[in-house]
Amino acid sequence: MPKILFALLAVLIVFPKFALASDFRYSIGGGFPYLLSAEVAYVTKAGKRRWYGNYKALFDPGFSLGMESSVSADNKHAIGVNLGAIGLKKGDGCGDEERDDLLTAVVCAGADVFDWETIYGLGATYSYSFNTLSRSGWKVGAGLGYGWSSNEIDGVTGQLGFSYQF
Fold first, then answer.
1. For the chain, what is the total number of helices (H) and then of strands (E)?
2. Confidence band for 91, pLDDT divided at 50, 70 and 90
3. Cα(119)–Cα(129) distance, rounded to whole angstroms?
4. Beta-bridge partners for 75
5. H-helix or E-strand spanning residue 63
6. H helices of the chain, where?
């Protein structure tokens, strides 16, 4: 996480003119399977397309880049694509270890709860913005993608989310 924050800070320092432009939007939200998400987006002048990068946190964090375009006259419905962290899968936890003693059983139970792996791949997204794609306000969305984790193909995964765009 510190590397990502450092990279974002470097971009903001090197390109202050762009970072302060009104065409950039910031949002924070949550959902499933990622419980927390922070996003920086560039909205085109016409307000019908956004290019974004987001960081998804808790359990096994991930980063993704994407683009979405408005598909309605009121700019509230949008479809898009994203590349990067598109979902989570349950990790192995303690695996097939024997849980004969109480301490091992407790440690493995804790590992099973928090052991998730990020699935990286390509996904398609849909979102609904309550106050248009380019303005501040609440947004809900869903995504479906195909990806892999730990060098193995995991297949199809999905995500649901909500956020507030500033």
1. 3, 8
2. low
3. 26
4. none
5. strand 62-70
6. 2-14, 16-19, 102-114
What is the distance between the alpha carbons of residues 86 and 147, in angstroms, rounded to a whole number? 8
> Alpha-carbon distance 5 to 68, whole Å?
24
Q: Which range, 44-58, 85-99, 119-133, 141-155, is most confident?
A: 119-133
pTM, full prediction: 0.72
Q: Are 55 and 4 in contact (CB under 8 A)?
A: yes
Is 117 in contact with 160 (CB distance < 8 Å)? no
List beta partners, residue 85.
Answer: 120
Query: Is the Cβ–Cβ distance between 108 and 94 less than 8 Å?
Result: yes
Q: Element (H or E) spanning 88, and its range? A: strand 77-90
What's the length of the chain?
166
Cβ–Cβ < 8 Å for 59, 116: yes
CB atoms within 10 A of CB 14: 9
Which structure tokens are listed for 130? Answer: 């309550």
Q: Are strands 24-32 and 49-57 parallel, antiparallel or unpaired?
A: unpaired
Q: Is the model more confident about 62 or about 153? A: 62
Q: How far apart are CA 56 and CA 153, in angstroms?
A: 21
Residue-wise pLDDT for 115-134, tens only, equals: 677 888 999 999 999 998 88
- Give bridge partners of residue 117 from the DSSP assignment: 89
